[in-house]
Amino acid sequence: MPFSPMLIFVVIFFLETLAAMLQNGFMVAVLGREWVRCRTLPACDMIVACLAASRFCLHGMALLNNLIDSFNFCSKVYYFNILWNFINILTYWLTAWLAVFYCVKISSFSHPIFFWLKWRISRSVPRLLLGSLIISVVTVIPAAASNVILIQMIASQSSHGNHTLADRAQTFHRYFSLSNLVLVLLIPFLLFLVSTLLLIFSLHQHLGQMRARRPGSCDPSTQAHIMALKSLTFFLVSYASYFLSLIIAFMKITALRRQWHWAWEVVTYAGICLHSSILVLSSPKLRNTLKTKLWKALDKR
């Protein structure tokens, strides 16, 4: 890639990361302060606060990994990848639980399972959050162990001038990491996918009923349903793209990623950044706090 386009994508990636970290940091500050002050939070806000904290760390680790990778500190990248994998797995589980929570609370299905879940899910959120943390720690251990073994093997073989065994170990590590990533992320991704599709179907069905009762009307409720459908569809596409981009990245298609690395990073994290914006704007609590802070800042100026 020529120098100028690459520089443009580097700047876009840094601005995108800064915007994402500011948004998620804002959500953590607002919801975390309320959590500490009231010693409790609504179940949905608990998930959003934990998700925002994990995404803040995810964007920070992505920025740090790219900076270290640019200076070719390979061993440090391996160690930071362990932490990035943990945060990424945790983010996937939290995103899945947020989708499940919205699906259960908002959808209008009359099946007994949904009624039981509506009654149980709010009280189960703290256990789901703790379970997500434990699962993330347990599932990242094999990847961490293989990373440490690989680094030690590469260092040992390089000191003896023999790279054959190290190359084979790297190939095995790549395929092991890919299979482990697919198995670890597939369950929360399927949970997210099914919950989001069910919620889209339920909202679309409800919107059709509203239009049938009041044809031609554009009342605020109808507009809100349309906006919710658009937001859910966008997030479904963007998160599915993020999942596929992780799989492709772990397959090490180096010829493509070496030339368009920074463009790839911009596209990979764009959906998550925009979804954080949607979370801020769709929450009355966060939206009103943001307006208040902005008005106070303008008044001071």
From TrEMBL:
Domain of life the protein comes from: Eukaryota
Organism: Equus przewalskii
Gene name linked to the record: LOC103566235
Main location: membrane
SUPFAM superfamilies assigned to the protein according to its UniProt record, in alphabetical order: Family A G protein-coupled receptor-like
Keyword Oxidoreductase appears in the UniProt entry: no
CDD domains according to UniProt: 7tm_TAS2R16 (cd15017)
Location of the protein in the cell: Membrane
Membrane topology term: Multi-pass membrane protein
Record's keyword terms, sorted: G-protein coupled receptor, Membrane, Receptor, Sensory transduction, Taste, Transducer, Transmembrane, Transmembrane helix
Protein name: Taste receptor type 2
Transmembrane segments: 6-31, 43-62, 82-104, 125-155, 175-203, 224-250, 262-281
Family membership noted in the UniProt record: Belongs to the G-protein coupled receptor T2R family.
